[in-house]
Amino acid sequence: MIDVVNTLTFPRFLVKHAESIPKHPAYREKYMGIWQVTNWQENFEQIKNLACGLTALGFERGMRLAIIGDNRPQLYQAMVAAQCLGGIPVPLYQDAVANEMIYVFNDAGITFAIVEDQEQVDKLLEIQDQCSHLKTIIYEDQKGLKDYQQAFLRSYQNIQELGQQYASQYPDFFLNAIEQGQSSDLCVILYTSGTTGQPKGVAHTHQNFILAGQNSSAFDQLSSSDNVLAYLPMAWVGDHLFSFAQAMVTGMTVNCPESRETVMTDMREIGPSYYFAPPRIFENLLTQVTIRMEDAGYIKRQLYAKAMQLAKRVGSDILDSHSVSLVNRLYYRFFDFIIYAPLRNALGINRIRVAYTAGEAIGPDLFRFYRSIGVNLKQFYGQTETSAYVCFQPDRQVKYDTVGIPAPGMEIRLAESGEVLVRGVSVMQGYYLKPEATAEAIDQDGFFHTGDAGIIDKDGHLRIIDRAKDVGKMASGKLFAPKFIENKLKFFPFIKEAVVFGNEKESIMVFINIDFDAMANWAERRHIAFAGYIDLAAKAEVYQMMSECIEQVNQDLADDPMLSHAQIERFLILHKELDPDDDELTRTRKVRRLFIAEKYAVLVDALYSGKPEQYIETKVKFEDGRDGSISATVRIQSAKKYQEVA
User: Fold this and answer.
1) What integer pLDDT is reported at residue 361 of this predicted model?
2) 556 Cβ neighbours under 8 A, 6+ residues apart
3) How far, in Å, are 65, 167, 268, 324, 513 from residue 163 at the CA level?
C-alpha cells in the first residue's frame, strides 16, 4: 500500500479512496437525462487505463497535457492520469476561440490534448500547424467524428482499451509510476485571464493545492458525505480548488451537469450540500426571482414583500445563531415554510450547507439577500497564483464588506501603498518558464503581490477596495475606486456590466450594459415594442429605469465618507453587450478597462464633453466566427446627485 501521509500527491489520494471508500460515488454525470455514477473503485480503474494508454502513446514524465471541455468526469480523470505519470495537466477555457489557444499551447509546450467533443477537435485541427509541440489529440465524445481519419486523432475509448492491454503486459507499472511522485512536483498549470496582456502560466505543486484543499475542507468540516456541482470552467482556479483539490482530498462526490443550459435543472435534482459561484451567478439567480415575482399575482407579491422585510431584519441573525425574539423566530419559521424554503428549492439551493462566492466583489445587498433566506453564503478570497486560497469567512463571523480572515497556513501583510501581500502554503511555485515575471510577483520575503488594494479592520478581517492599479485619484485629489462603484451598480438585476471612468477627471461617468433577458421581460410586460438589444438599449423607458438605479447608487455613495465625492455624473447604455470574443472581457468576465476605454474613446469623450448623444460604429465577432460591425446613435443622460458627506 502506498504511503499517503508522508508524500502528498493527488494520485496517492486516488489510491487511498479506492481502498477505503471503493463504492462511494466519485462522480455523477447526467447523460441523456439519467444520472450515471462512477464510484471510487471504478474511478481508479478508469484512470489507470487512461494513464497506461497515454504511456503506450509516448506520454512521459514532465510532459504537458491540455484538457478542454465542459465539466466531465473523463476530463477530471485526465488530470489525475497525467499526474500519475508525472505529467502536468493544463486546462484551457472551453469557450475560447481557436486563435486564443495558440499562445497557451506554445507557451506550455503541450504535446497531448484530451478534449470533450467535435467542437474542440475542430479548433485544434484549425491551429495544429501553429502549435509546434502538439502530437496527439484524444476526444471523449465520438459524435460527429466518425469520418475523421487523421492518425494523430484517438478516441477516449480507444485509449482505455490500449491502456488495459498495457496494464496487462506491465501490471506493476501504474503503482510504480505513482510512487515516483513527490509533493514538490508540478500538479497543474493554470493560465491567468490576461486582463492587461498575454496570460501567464501559473505553476502549482501538489503540495500547494493539497494543503489548500485540506485546510479549506477542515475549515468548513467537509467530508466524503458532501457533494458539489461542477459547472464552472475547469480552467478557472476556483473550480480546480473546489471540484478537484477538495474532492480529491476528502473523497466527496463531484456532480457534472448534462450541459451548460441544464445546470439549474440538474442542480435542483442533485441538491448539492456544497456550492460555489462567482457573484454573476448569484445575481442571475436573483434576477430570475425578481422576474418571477413581477409576474406573480397581487397576494403572492405582497406576501413575498413582507417575507423579505422580515428576512432582512432577522434572517442573518437567525442563521448566525444570534439573539432574536421568539415572535420574530415564529414569523420567520412561518415564512420559511411558505416563501423561503420553496424559493431555495426552486433555485436548487435548499440542501446547501455551505456556499461560497469569489472572483469579484459581491454587493452587500445581494450577499444579505441570500443569507437572510437561510443560505450560508460566504466569501473567500484568492487568486490563480494562490490556489484561490487566502481568506475565508468563518461561520458566525460573516461581514458583508470583507472577505474574511487569513486562511490556515496563510499570512497577510499590507504594503505602504495599501497593496495586499500574501505568503503561505498555497502560493505558486512561479510563472511557468518566466523567472523574471515570478521575481516581480513574489518578493525576497516570499510574499506574493496580489495587485489588490485593501485594509484590515479591527477584527482582522480583510476588506478589498479595488485593484491597486485601478485605484486612482480624481482631479480633486480624492479617491477613485471604479470597481467599488461598478459592483454597486451590478447588484441591480437589470444591469449586467458597468464600466466606470473618472481617474484624474473632475467627475464620474459610466457605461452600462443592460441584462437583456431581464430587461426584455420588463419591457414586454409594459407593452414596449423593441427589435433587439440595440433597440431596447436606446428606449427612453430603459434609460429612465437605469437613471433610477444610478440615483440609488449615488444616494448610497453620498452616505459613504470615503466615496461620497464619487457619485455618477452622466451615463450611457452601450449599444452592444461586452463580450470576451470581442476582447472586452476576459474569459472569467473581468472587464478589460483600458481596452474598453480605447475602443470606445469616442463615447468617453462624448460623456465628458457634455454631448447629448454620439454616433458610433463598432467592430464585432459574430457567433459563427464572422467579423462584422454594428452602429448606433447612443444617448447620454445626466444622473441625480446628492449632498456629499461633510
Assistant:
1) 67
2) 488
3) 17, 6, 37, 61, 50
Question: Which residues on adjacent β-strands are paired with residue 296?
Answer: none
**Which among 303, 330, 299, 300 is positioned nearest to 314, based on CA atoms?**
330
As a dihedral over the C-alpha atoms of residue 554, residue 560, residue 563, residue 564, rounded to 10 degrees, the angle is 50
Q: Collapsing DSSP states into helix, strand and coil, what is residue 361?
A: coil
Quick check: 3 pLDDT over 60?
no
Sequence letter at residue 354: V
| Rounded distance between C-alpha atoms, residue 287 and residue 491, angstroms | 10
* Residue 58 near residue 152, CB atoms below 8 Å: no
For residue 274, the 8-state DSSP code is E
Q: What pTM does this model have?
A: 0.83
Whether 2 has a pLDDT exceeding 60, the answer reads no
Strand-pairing partners, residue 37, are 28
One-character DSSP codes across 291-347: HHHHHS-HHHHHHHHHHHHHIIIIIHHHHTT----HHHHHHHHHHIIIIIHHHHHHH
Q: What is the pLDDT of residues 72-110, one digit of tens each?
A: 999 999 999 999 999 999 999 999 999 999 999 999 999
Q: What is the per-residue DSSP string for 27-81? A: EEEEETTEEEEEEHHHHHHHHHHHHHHHHHTT--TT-EEEEESSS-HHHHHHHHH
The answer to whether 26 and 250 have CB atoms below 8 angstroms apart is no
Cell of 242: 473546489
pLDDT tens readout for residues 221-256 = 999 999 999 999 999 999 999 999 999 999 999 999
Q: What is the pLDDT of residues 476-534, one digit of tens each?
A: 999 898 988 998 898 788 999 999 999 999 999 999 999 998 899 899 989 999 999 99
CATH 3.30.300.30, the chain: domain bounds: 472-638
CATH architecture of 14-181+227-273: 3-Layer(aba) Sandwich (3.40)
For 472-638, which CATH superfamily applies? ANL, C-terminal domain (3.30.300.30)
The top-level CATH class assigned to 279-350+353-467 is alpha beta
Which region, left, alpha or beta, applies to residue 69 given φ > 0 means left and ψ of -120 to 50 means alpha? left
Asked if pLDDT for residue 36 goes beyond 60, the answer is: yes
Can you give the pLDDT at residue 604? 97
CATH 3.40.50.12780 in the chain is located at 14-181+227-273, 279-350+353-467
CB 93 within 8 A of CB 235: yes
Tell me how far apart the terminal alpha carbons of the chain are, to the nearest angstrom. Answer: 70
- Identify the sign of the CA torsion 254, 67, 111, 119: positive
State yes or no: pLDDT of 261 exceeds 50.
yes
Q: Is 42 exposed, middle or buried (0-12, 13-18, 19+ CB in 10 A)?
A: middle
Overall size of the chain counted in residues: 646
What DSSP line would sit under 362-395, residue for residue?
A: --HHHHHHHHHTT--EEEEE--GGGTT-SEEPPT
Tell me the three state secondary structure of residue 201: strand
> Using an 8 Å Cβ cutoff, are 419 and 455 in contact?
no
What's the mean pLDDT in 210-229?
97
Would you say the C-alpha torsion 487, 488, 493, 494 has a positive or negative sign?
negative
The strand order across the sheet containing 430-431 reads: 186-191, 201-205, 430-431
* Nearest to 567, CA basis, from 582, 545, 550, 583: 550
